[in-house]
Design goal:
The complex is a heterodimer of chains A (45) and B (372). With 45 residues, chain A is an all-beta fold. Chain A has no helices and four strands. In chain A, 0% of the residues lie in helices and 33% in strands. Chain B is built from eleven helices and 15 strands. In chain B, strands 9, 10, 11, 13 and 14 form a five-stranded antiparallel β-sheet that branches. Chain B is globular, with a radius of gyration of 29 Å. In chain B, strand 10 and strand 11 form a beta hairpin. In chain B, helix 1 runs antiparallel to helix 2. Classes of the chains: A mainly beta (45), B alpha+beta (372). At the A-B interface, strand 1, strand 3 and strand 4 of A face strand 1, strand 2, helix 7, strand 7 and strand 8 of B. Strand 1 of chain A pairs antiparallel with strand 11 of chain B, so a sheet runs across the interface.
């Protein structure tokens, strides 16, 4: 069985400091094992 | 070498024991040679098979690197289409629903856990309390074993599983990659009447300055018109996804926790049920069966969250054919096909109150995959 998520997430103009970008970024890699409740992606408010 | 040494030793012994008749000597030599000969032939055959497998694996790896392997016509995939997979799935469900005797339960579930790498320490109840394998399969976990990331600026995984693909939908048609070299459109997965935020690309203008309009008109197309035009892999172009549309595909192995939770706080506005095929969903099937994710039976939940559109597709497989939706307990999946005509239009349900639907908080349990 498989679950597919399709969603809109925040985007922003490219900034110098990418770590503080308001843009949504995945924090996973292909092939990673994830558990329910773990973050798939984050953005900064 | 051992074989030839044995032969030499046998010959030497035969020459020493020259008292026997020549005919009996030759027959005993023949029988002595027969067994080592068969052994050698078996070893040679196994060696050849192993060499061929290594060669095939190498070819597969080379092709995968080039991106040319995926979705070649596969005899196994063709064969799979001929099998009554829905009936097999339903039979499997019946079989696994059989109540096991109390004494057998721990052994059966421990065996299952060993085979599919489940962690029995996380199981909420004592093993004896799960009456059947089907019941054990959709087990709940102990409180606190799956802490929800409380960061308000994060989207959490709705399931335990392996990340197959993820990325941003950018190009025309909003294509989701199944495997390298082949993709399916998001609207094929979610349905033609999806709320997917797409913008119609005006051919007369470039992409940057292009006029963006609603795809409501496109969504008005009937299922029949769309599916008869080019079933499953229809190209919804020239619509392009709006910026900031992402996807993530997570595969659940048989040993994984099989309940689905809410990835964010959101309002589920509606549900769509596609009663498709029930192909297996393992890695090989993903590589060999075209459009696997849009062929298989699935439930699509659509709604809105603070950042816009949100959709979740739960796709069934042969062994895990039915999907139980806790926000709509009356929904039944993996039913026997009433019509042989394929594809059937998806069955839609809009949740009340219209425009608000059902509110779910991040981490709320919303569905489960059942055996058969």
């Amino acid at each position: 069985s498989t679950v597919v998520l399709v969603f809109q997430a925040p985007i922003s103009e490219p900034s110098a400091d990418k770590s503080m970008s308001a843009e949504f970024r995945f924090c996973i890699k292909k092939g990673d094992r994830v558990r329910m409740g773990e973050a798939l992606g984050r953005w900064h408010d | 070498t051992t074989f030839f040494r044995k032969v030499q030793a046998t010959e030497a012994r035969a020459s020493l024991n020259s008292g026997g008749s020549s005919s009996s000597n030759s027959s005993s030599q023949g029988s002595n040679l027969l067994l080592p000969g068969a052994t050698v032939a078996t070893i040679v055959m196994l060696g050849l098979l192993h060499a061929r497998r290594l060669y095939d694996d190498q070819k597969v790896e080379e092709a995968r690197e080039k991106g040319t392997l995926e979705f070649r016509p596969d005899a196994k995939a063709t064969f799979m289409r001929l099998l009554p997979l829905r009936s097999i799935s339903r039979f499997w469900g019946t079989l696994t629903s059989v109540e096991l005797p109390m004494w057998l339960r721990p052994y059966a579930y421990k065996g299952w856990a060993r085979a599919f790498h489940s962690n029995l320490e996380e199981v909420a109840l004592p093993l004896e309390e799960y009456a059947s394998l089907r019941e054990f399969f959709v087990r709940r976990l102990k409180e606190g074993t799956r802490p929800i990331d409380c960061n308000p600026c994060c989207l959490v995984s709705p399931v335990d599983g392996t990340v197959l693909q993820f990325g941003e939908l950018k190009k025309a048609g909003a294509m989701i990659e199944q495997v390298k070299g082949f993709s399916y459109s998001a609207s094929s997965l979610l349905g033609a009447s999806s709320l997917l935020p797409m913008a119609v690309v005006d051919d007369n203008k470039n992409e940057d300055g292009g006029q963006e309009g609603s795809t409501d008109d496109a969504n008005q197309k009937s299922w029949w018109r769309v599916s008869l035009a080019s079933p499953k892999v229809r190209d919804p172009a020239p619509a392009c996804p709006l910026k900031g549309l992402f996807y993530c595909v997570i595969y659940l192995r048989p040993g994984d926790y099989h309940r689905i939770h809410s990835p964010v706080d959101w309002n589920v506005l509606g549900r769509r049920h596609f009663s498709g095929c029930l192909f297996p969903m393992n890695e090989r099937a993903t590589r060999t069966i075209r459009n696997l994710h849009v062929e298989n039976e699935r439930i699509v939940l659509e709604g809105k969250w603070q950042e816009g559109f949100m959709a979740m597709a739960a796709i069934g497989a042969t062994n895990i054919g039915s999907i139980e939706l806790f926000i709509e307990p009356t929904l039944r999946t993996n039913r026997p096909w009433k019509k042989m005509l394929h594809p059937e239009p998806p069955e839609e349900q809009v949740y009340e109150p219209k425009g608000t639907g059902v509110f779910l908080k991040k981490g709320d349990e919303l569905a489960a995959f059942n055996m058969g």
